[in-house]
Amino acid sequence: MSGWEPQLVGAAVTYPPHILDLLEPWFDADGPAVSDREATLTYRELADRSAALARELRAHGVRPGDCVVVHALMSRWAVVGMLGALRAGARYVAVDAAFPVARQQLMAAASGARVAVTEPGLPLALDGLSVVEMEQLTHRPADSLTEPAAAGAAPASGRGEAAYTCFTSGSTGVPKGVTVSASALAYSTAARLAYYREPVRVFLLCSSISFDSSVAGIYWTLAGGGHLVIPASRPADLVAVGRAARRWRPSHLLMVPSLYRVALRGGLAADLGSLSTSIVAGEACPPALVGEHLAALPRTRLYNEYGPTECTVWCTVHACGPADVTGISVSLGTPIPGARLYVRDSAGAPARPGEVGELYVGGPGVARPATPDPDPDSSPFRPVDDEWLYRTGDLVAVGNDGLLTFHGRLDDQLKLGAVRVERGEIEHVLTAAAGVAAAAVGVVTKGARHRVVGFVVPTGTVPDVPRIRAFMLTRLPAAALPVRFEAVSSLPVLPNGKVDHGELDRRAASLVAV
Q1: Which of 252, 354, 398, 412 is the most exposed, fewest CB within 10 Å of its CB?
Q2: pLDDT at residue 147, rounded to an integer
Q3: Three-state secondary structure along 94-135?
Q4: pTM, entire model
Q5: Smallest Cα–Cα separation from 94: which of 126, 63, 58?
Q6: 3-state DSSP: the chain helix, strand, coil percent, rounded to 5?
Q7: How many Å apart are CA 52 and CA 416, to the nearest integer?
Q8: Which helix (H) or strand (E) holds 357?
């Protein structure tokens, strides 16, 4: 024994060896599989087109284990491209065509792909790739989509070990690739099918295809025979989300908390009454958001999910309720089926109940390190017994009730005066103040010194700074308060909808000196 015993263990779950094993049973169905702004594909049509694409990819020299770039907007074409790559035995990198061109090029170059599949009508700004245009598949006779291209051709579906590579931002600004196996994706999807009581009837996809939160909605929906609805080419288009909700009456939705809050405050709840399940993920969920959800959609269950990309989208989940509204933070909940959670103190020993420590994650969803023998001093992956654990860098504590609470990140602690405080904690309190529609903070750093600027989207014309300061002093030490409050019409966001803290830090530096 290594001395590593998990503090929290998820329920047992069974899952097949490959994600396609969960999808293929539905491929003969005539019900709607995926709809975007322009058209709907049935399951049979999705199966036919992805099979034809798989054969086309093989004809272009793609072999099991190769990488294929899926260059598309958020659309039905993106889903065809993903499944076509998987059925060719390849792994895919989804490159959102709405991203800045430089970002698209970085992702494509880092992927190592030789072939790209493209959505019709999109200019391909990726150099050096052999291109397969998916539009060609729609012009073939229906019979040709279901028959091998030649005698002795490979079957429609192959099996590769890896499913996809997702690029995260990374601290250097250079995209960092995380490759997830087809087995891990099958596990993660099976865990959703096991955990959530309500099956997906209609899922509204509000995440960029280049970020792993989209993986949750796409494969969860298709593995249960549900209908995936893609409202717009950009996740933050709430007008399109409302239009799609009125038309399709969704049962499930996932958004980052900051976008969900804007949606509720913008009156979108009137269009979302059909929801049985709303999920927030990707950012810390503020307690005030739970209160706003319960008031606006009392019949819709709200869940707070947590999980690094390296853990195949999620590893904990919490069913939110009234008790979360008055807490300091919303719980991360308990491990999903199959996950194992370890909390270690600063000395590397198991943290006691209530003690803050760093979270490590184990289980079938954990990705593998890029090299078989990573440097233990620099790699976040740690071999323990017969599995890999992922060191998240997140600070958590396990309460006596068995629930996990989030206490910030190891690399996001600020020392303000003699007080150590998390950026996220300041933002939670600032956002909860009266008259604040949305808020975040920028940090100016020089050596070990930090100064904080609060950026506030007011509910009125200008923020009531004395009132905001008075409220924050009831929750935080005086040294943790922003030295300046700046009114803004909106917060800058990254392509995945999360707040762009790098941009806020740059703005803060232009406003205050350290």
Answers
A1: 354
A2: 46
A3: EEECCCCHHHHHHHHHHHCCCEEEECCCCCCCCCCCEEEECH
A4: 0.85
A5: 126
A6: 30, 25, 45
A7: 59
A8: strand 357-362
